[in-house]
Design goal:
186 residues; mainly alpha; 3 strands; 65% helix; elongated; PadR family transcriptional regulator
Length: 186
């Protein structure tokens, strides 16, 4: 099983859901597509970590609801005791930053500004999520505590990313402003 499989089990341990609903729930933590999620759900159902049933809908296609089994809970608990590997970072912005010497400053600014806007939206989303967790449930033992600390991690990461973008944009724009008068004199 891969990390995404365990993530799917984790969301289904909280509540039975359709594959589509699980995909939406996991997105803030792990970017996954339908093409990844549905085969994993089928494999875990074959291994009896999940069960499913169909729900008829009148105005929409029927949907398959997945539930975790006792065997799935045991598998998820085993995973919690496995050693944590080093994190894997795959960020296209990092690769484009490495190659920015190949582009013009306006494009470099556009690239970084696009990511700054992304981080701003993420922060707004995380703060909205945070509002839904009552203060008294932000303590160890409550299920919401784990949501709280993960949302806080998201806030820290998005804040750091936004701060970095603003720092880079400040440098690029400052250099652009210094060069602008020199270019008009020629």
């Amino acid at each position: 099983m891969n990390t995404l499989s365990y993530g799917l089990l984790a969301f289904l341990a909280r509540e039975p859901s359709s594959g589509y609903d699980v995909m939406l729930k996991i997105q803030p933590f792990w970017q996954a597509k339908h093409s990844q999620i549905y085969p994993l759900l089928a494999q875990m159902e074959e291994k009896e970590f999940l069960t499913s049933h169909w729900v008829k809908q009148s105005e929409k296609p029927d949907k398959k609801i997945y539930s975790i089994t006792d065997s799935g809970i045991r598998k998820l608990k085993e995973w919690m005791y496995m050693p944590l590997p080093d994190p894997v970072t795959r960020d296209e912005l990092s690769m484009k930053t490495f190659c920015m010497w190949l582009t013009d400053r306006d494009n470099a600014i556009d690239i970084v500004e696009t990511r700054r806007v992304y981080f701003t939206r993420r922060l707004e989303s995380f703060h909205k999520m945070m509002e839904s967790i009552p203060e008294e449930k932000r303590v160890f033992g409550h299920r919401e505590f784990y949501d709280y600390i993960l949302i806080q991690k998201g806030i820290f990461n998005a804040t750091a990313g936004k701060d970095w973008c603003e720092w880079v944009l400040g440098m690029l724009r400052e250099q652009q402003a210094k060069e602008a008068p020199a270019q008009t004199v020629n």
